[in-house]
Amino acid sequence: MSLNYGGGSSFLNFDQRRPQNSFAGKTIAFCLPGLMYTGTFMTQFMRLLFDLQGMGINFYISQKYSSMVNHARSDCLEADNYAGTMLTPFRGKVPYDYIMWIDSDMIFKTEDFMDLLAMDKDVAAGWYVQSPGNGLVPTNESTVVINSDKKELYEKGSNKCETIEDMSKKTEPFTADYCGFGWVLIKKGVYEKIPYPWFVPRVVQLKKPDGTILEDVQSEDISMCEDFRKYGFDIWINPKVRVGHHKLVAL
What we know:
- The chain is an alpha+beta fold.
- The protein has helices spanning 39-54, 69-76, 110-119, 150-156, 164-168, 220-230, and strands at 2-6, 9-13, 27-33, 58-64, 98-102, 106-107, 123-127, 144-145, 174-176, 178-179, 183-187, 203-207, 213-217, 235-242, 244-245.
- The protein has a single domain, classed as Spore Coat Polysaccharide Biosynthesis Protein SpsA, Chain A (Alpha-Beta Complex).
- The strands form four sheets. It has a nine-stranded mixed β-sheet with strand order 1-2-4-3-5-11-7-14-9, sandwiched between helices. Strands 6-15 form a two-stranded antiparallel ribbon.
C-alpha cells in the first residue's frame, strides 16, 4: 500500500490482484468537507475503504475545510479559479470514475455506498433527516424536495421536504429537484459540463401576488442541484438508502 499526503488530501493506491465485482478497477474520489470527524465516522469510513479494497475498487480522498461550506466543497474538487470556467475536478490529475460526497456528520455502512453505485445514474443520492435548528428538537423532514413549488415558497417561505413517512412509502428510485449533499454519488463527466463556480449560494427573489418582494440566499447544495438539472442531469434518490445524521450540540 502506498500512501501519499499533500495539500490536505491523500491518494491510497492498493494493489488489486483479485477483482470481485463489475466495479473492480474503478476509482472513487471521496470528497469530505469538514473540520472534525467523530470516532464513529472514522470507523465507518475505514471499514468502507477496506471493503472497497477487497472488491478491487481504487479510491482518492480529498478533505478540505472552510468556514464557508461552498468554498470547502469547491476546494475538495481542487477547483482552480484562474483556469477559466470549464474546469475538470482535481485539475485533471486524478483519473476518477465517480465522486462521492460525504459530510462529516453522516452515519453509514458500506451497503449504503454500494447501493448508490449500483444505480448507475449520473447523480445518485441517499437521504437523511434534517437537523433541527436548535439541535435539540427532532424533525420529521428529510433532505429531499421532489418538486420545487413557487406557491409553496410564497406561502411558507420554503419548499416542501418529504417527510420520514413519505420516504418510507417509496420503494423504487425516483427523481427529485433538490437533495442534501451529505451522501451523493456523481459520475465523471457531470462537473466537466457545468461551468465554474460550483456550489454558488444564489440570491433568490420572488414577488408575491400582493406585490411584496421576498429575497433570501439559498444554500450551496440547492444551487448545485439547480445546476445539475439546468445542464441535463437528473437527480435520482434511492429511498432505501437512508443514512444517519449526527449533529453535535454545544452545551
